[in-house]
Amino acid sequence: MNVKLTIVLLLILAGLTVVVLLGDRGPEVVKDEGLLFPQFVAADVRGLSWSSGGVETAVSRVEGKPDEWTVTVAGLEVPADADEIEEVLSEVGRCNVMRRIPAGEVGVEARADYGLTPETRKVRVTMRGAIVEAVLGVAGVMRDTTYARRSTEDDVLLVDHGLAEAIADRGAEKVRARRILDWSVYDTDRMSVERAGATDGPILVVERSAAERAIFLATVPYRGFVDPKLMESELLPAVLQLEASEFAADGVKDGDLPKYGLDAPRFVVAVTKREGGQSVERRVLVGADVPEKEGMVYVMESGRPFVYACVGQKLLGHLGADPVKWRDRNLTRLGWKPVDRIVSKYGDVSFEAERMTAEWNLVSPEKMVLDERAVDDWFKVLREMEVEGFIDAPDAAALGLAEPRGEIVLYPPKVKPEEGEEEKPAEPVVRILVGADRDDGPGVYAMLAGAASAFRVGPALPDLMKDGHQRLRKKAVLGVDFGTKEVTSLRRAKAGETEDLTRVEGVWPEGVRGAAVTTVAKEVLDLTAVRWVGKAEGHEEEYGVAGGGWLECRVKLRDRDTTVETEYGVVVGAETEGGRFARAIREGRAEPDVFVLSPAVLVKLEAPLREPEKVVPPDEAEDPPPPEEPDGPKDTDDPKAPEGPAGPGGDEDPGDHGD
């Protein structure tokens, strides 16, 4: 078969397929354009109803609340699931008419062929100023198509969407809202919990801070901060996202409430939010357990006659817990607020640091650039520090907080004043007062300035302050780069023994390994502190760095360009749990600060510098040479022994000595 004939046959086959698919059972069809529901705009829909199998579902948009819908159940309007309604609107709104079959070509009797009589499926859309109703028939011959007819017309329409199947299973139960409250956690401003049998009001009242919405404050049963993570991920969601597993009863009256344990509910949870400039409150009642449904409880919203059966273990667990569970144990609630200045004082130890041009600098008691990572670690410890207990209405004097032993004050970044305005002193982000040592365990008493409660804090807080700025310093001690320098001498002294090695005309003494000397020299120049301790002056004996200490190592470097020699070194002193105290030597003079040196570095500083002596195992030793014969005749009883020289100067007979 040639190519041309093949193409012709394929075109004929394609044409026949189009006739079969679009023929619509014989009657002449004409093209139509537009939606099945003309001028459909989802936002303009006020009401929507659809029926399938004689069961009608009707939903209405709540007046003045465009995001809320109701669905009619047993003559009552109950909350509808807005997401489900939006999906139905989407299904309805994308029904385009593909073809129109004129009524004259169909006939009233032939409507049954298209599933349009009896009218078992209808969709009615109520928009602003218009109501459009359509009857839905059977599926078309093409995929995802449906036959339909507008109620005001007799023409049969073929629409490009399987609308009948899309909404057939969406009865009132399907679109009914299952959440008792469909509020956002972040919109909620206040929450209170009442417990059955409590005679003195709510057991917990929590309000969101007006100044900072991420912070929650409790007023009952204590005045203090509530853990924001627990509030936003546990307690509030347990209430706001509570869903009905079953719709237990509708149209409930007061006389029916005892059946569900809702006449005297176990818990009443009230939540409040701002809406339209006003405060709106809704109350959730938690009643009895559902019979024969383990883990389920009856729940209803106050003022609405609907009872739901909900899975309630999580909710009951939270509401029944001690309210102290929700208390914020974070010491500072600092979070990740920006801080550009630190002022810390604990007894006689104090420091002030400030961020300048992206670097942290120590302002007092001396000036130096601090280690960025060390500052970050310091903040991490402080940000994550938790209290071990609370003291409400504290006696500040008894806890040593009236005249605190120490304090940490953190300040925000400076704000440049507007032109013509004076610079105002920055208000602290956090101010922590540190009082006396605890009498119930290690640690101290502390409180936030102006707070209503004090805390019991572990030893991590005073430890953070006792070190002062030392833990924020750069760990490099000397930080000398070899560059164009070369080692000219190395002196080590320990336990009364001294190695003093000098390089003469580029050559080390015989047996000294130059590479080993260079390695030790680099260890000295690259010293890294495990931690900084403080000033050595007046404490040399205590730290063991007086004189030569336990180990002294000095290196002289000569600059190849200038031939200038400079001496560096380290004096290692008393042993600590994490290493040994040490003091650096720069340009021949001892540095003022003491630090702790790692044991690993000590091992490297004591590395051998000379070639090891060769030791020969005994089994590999050579046999000793035979002893030399003494001059002169030998005394012997053997008559066959050779005779030696006759005496000094005598001739030795080199011949054989036979028997």
Structural account:
With about 650 residues, this protein is an alpha+beta fold. About 15% of the residues lie in helices and about 35% in strands. It contains 12 helices and 35 strands. The strands form 4 sheets. Strands 1-6-10-9-8-7-2-3-4-5 form a 10-stranded antiparallel β-sheet. A 9-stranded antiparallel β-sheet has the order 14-13-12-11-16-17-18-19-15. A hairpin with a 6-residue loop joins strand 26 and strand 27. The longest helix is centred in the first third of the chain and has 20 residues. The C terminus is likely disordered.
Q: Which descriptors would you attach to this protein?
A:
alpha+beta; disordered C terminus; 659 residues; nine-stranded antiparallel beta sheet; ten-stranded antiparallel beta sheet
Q: Quick recap of the structure?
A:
With 659 residues, the protein is an alpha+beta fold. Helices cover 17% and strands 35% of the residues.
Strands, total number: 35
**What value does the Rg take, in angstroms?**
47 Å
Strand neighbour order, sheet with most strands: 1-6-10-9-8-7-2-3-4-5
Compute the separation of the termini in Å.
126 Å
Helix content: 10-25%
The outline comes out as elongated
Beta-strand content estimate? 25-35%
Total count of helical runs of at least 4 residues: 12
* Uncertain stretches: 16-30, 632-659
Q: How would you sum up the major sheet?
A: 10 strands, antiparallel
- Based on secondary structure, the structural category is alpha+beta
Q: Mean pLDDT, nearest integer?
A: 87
